[in-house]
Amino acid sequence: MNILVINCGSSSLKYQLINMDDESVLAKGLVERIGIDGSVLKHEVEGHDKVKIQQDIPNHEVALKLVMDALVDSEHGAIKSLDEINAVGHRVVHGGEEFAQSVLIDEKVIEGIKKCNELAPLHNPANLIGISACQKILPNVKMVAVFDTAFHQTMPKESYLYALPYEYYEKYKIRRYGFHGTSHLYVSQRAADMLGKKPEQVNIITCHLGNGASCAAVKAGKCVDTSMGLTPLEGLIMGTRCGDMDPAIVTFLMDKEKLDTKGINEVMNKKSGVLGMSGVSSDFRDIEDAQAQGNEKAKVALDAYHQRVKKYIGAYYSELGHVDAIVFTAGLGENSAKSREEICKGLEELGIELDTQKNKVRGKEEIVSKDSSKIKIMVIPTNEELVIARDTLRLTK
């Protein structure tokens, strides 16, 4: 059974075609700059050279048509006909309280996703565009929505409620939702596998560290706390997002800088994080290079980033009571040995002992803790597409 996984952003479209008989990736790619000058499709099929197609791509429907054409192309295709696509799984960022698990897409589901648009205005509308475009091209194929927020719906009220008047939760559903759920689910289950146990037998702290970043406390296979909140702005310092801060700063800056709500949101979401702190870049590789050249602001930005992750690990350690493993995943978590070392430094008294030799690994599944470490430290490359494909298979088979 072949499943097409679609991850639709506001100006991009990522995809993978997965053969679920053996979970092999038949093809994958990325369409960038949809509706913007310089549109391009980067397409890759197992055993073939990468293909780059540059042409005007004004909208997501054109982008998806280009992807379908690439998948069945006689030279660089992965299948002979679109009839070989048996189901489609769509990543949807925000499911609110409406969706605590993946669902088959119908009109009722689409209306439910629309209700969550105001909670994720940059993401959900784009996800819906991808669903609509796919339905036009593959009208008879079953489709599934897999939500970033679903894994975190097991959090207890004390973890997800804010200390605001309760009426705001009742009226507007203001609460912590959490994101990167498919990633936290995948790596926590893989960590249990690597420990030779079932997910319900272990407690794990997962650290999804990239340009967007979040931590989660996973107890017996279920999320009990996570760092992101109502939106992906809360929690860790990120590439361009501020993360946790005194909420009074918002109104203070609005007054001092004469900012409206759009302006302050722009500052907090796109001009802050390590970019704002360092003045260098939102790319951690650039900041590490700047630090090596003696840039003090770059050093402080990295120190602050590592310190914030360390603080969440400590908090979740106390919340879980017993921890079997800490997992590092996503771009920075998988590839930066230096960041993992800095985050784990000073946590030895908690039974978290990193082996600096084992830690010299990039993008590869590995246990990088000392043999004597009470808590295992793991690097596990995330695979959100496979989670989406598995859920799609389960609901459509």
TrEMBL record:
Gene3D superfamilies: 3.30.420.40
Binding, substrate: 91
Active-site residues per Swiss-Prot or TrEMBL entry: 148
EC number: 2.7.2.1
UniProt-annotated binding residues for Mg(2+): 7, 384
Catalyzed reaction equations: acetate + ATP = acetyl phosphate + ADP
CDD domains to which the protein is assigned, alphabetical: ASKHA_NBD_AcK_PK
Site (Transition state stabilizer): 180, 241
Main location: cytoplasm
GO terms under biological process: acetate metabolic process; acetyl-CoA biosynthetic process
Functional description taken from the UniProt entry: Catalyzes the formation of acetyl phosphate from acetate and ATP. Can also catalyze the reverse reaction.
Protein name: Acetate kinase
Listed GO MF terms: acetate kinase activity; ATP binding; magnesium ion binding
Cofactor note: Mg(2+). Can also accept Mn(2+).
Residues annotated as binding ATP: 14, 208-212, 283-285, 331-335
Family matches, as InterPro entries: Ac/propionate_kinase, Aliphatic_acid_kin_short-chain, Aliphatic_acid_kinase_CS, ATPase_NBD
The organism of origin for this protein: Criibacterium bergeronii
